[in-house]
Amino acid sequence: MEHSCVQLDNLPDEILLIIFQKLHNCDVLYSFIGLNKRLDTIVNDTIFTRNLTLITSAHSPSYQFTDMVLDRFCREILPRINDKIERLNIESSIMERILLATNYPNLHALGLYNFAFETANQLFCDGSYLIRRFQNQISSLFINMRPHVQLSDGWGHPQKRNIFIFIKFCTRFKNLQCLNFSSSCDYEQLTFTSIAPTEFSSNLLELHVVIKTIIDCLCLLDGQFNQLHTLYVTIRPRGYCECPLVRNDTKLPNLQCFSLIHEGRTSMYDEIFVPLLRRMPNLEELSLYFVSTRGPIIDGDNLEKNIINHMTRLNKFIFNICSAICLDQLVNLPSNENIQSAFRNFQNSQIIS
Fold first, then answer.
1. Which of 48, 240, 252, 266 has an alpha carbon 20 to 30 Å from 132's alpha carbon atom?
2. Where are the domains of the chain?
3. Strands of the 51-54 sheet, one edge to the other
4. pTM of the predicted structure, to 2 decimals
5. Do 276 and 248 touch, CB atoms closer than 8 A?
6. Can you point out the beta strands (E) in 135-254?
């Protein structure tokens, strides 16, 4: 390493910065911090310290955060750069050691990956040290839950454990503005149809979630998150879903960006999708991805009449909409040219039919 440092010292700072930016930030810090004053100055730049990712999978498959590497980060590196760290991305297995290693006065974004339900339940309970330390400081949370064995309640129904963790984060972090909550489990989508009324963070402005049904989306937008300006929803239906009656008429004037991905087919376009979208008069960006199995083909005329004309501020519309219609339901099957011409009023667009 000493010989390497001599060679590095022969390079100008600009070249060293270019080289170091090709590496992972934590590799740069672990390899060069503390070697000499010049390298210390370079690697202490916010380029390398503002956003740290301490996740094994983010590096090469053979890379591991051994106890020796982790000990040095916790004992030496993190305390030296703690005031420069604004975002931490960490794995569940080392989360507690990293968060307790030092103070993080400027940390406002936290990514917790491969996150175990048991860990979340234990470390972020009422009155826990981590909650007391970070509940007013964190404004952005990125949560990826670890796959786990599906459990059933006393009636044989699958336990919905992730929703309790979601609620815990929404209620514990008082100044939370952005939440991205996902799971690697196909059967652990969030569902809001059977939870008790809960007072969520009124500061939440941006939300990314994977849910079970379009009804869960309606429940999500029933007034609990009135301040949202950005909402990304992925619907991943699995098995039978209860569909309670939920209001779908209250305006959502603060919503400016909405993305809806529906995996699998849906017959709810006219019944739920259109009324839902008409509740968003101030949308500036809209993304729709779904397969419709009921009604006529959803073409440009349909989209313009039912959606676009109700959003006077819309300036970006991305969509991938398929209409799966039985041939015996159609009197005249439109040609590709007819479908294309229905999008004549869509400027700067590329339409594939």
1. 48
2. 256-343
3. 51-54, 87-91, 109-115, 140-145, 178-183, 206-211, 230-235, 257-266, 285-292, 316-323
4. 0.86
5. yes
6. 140-145, 178-183, 206-211, 230-235
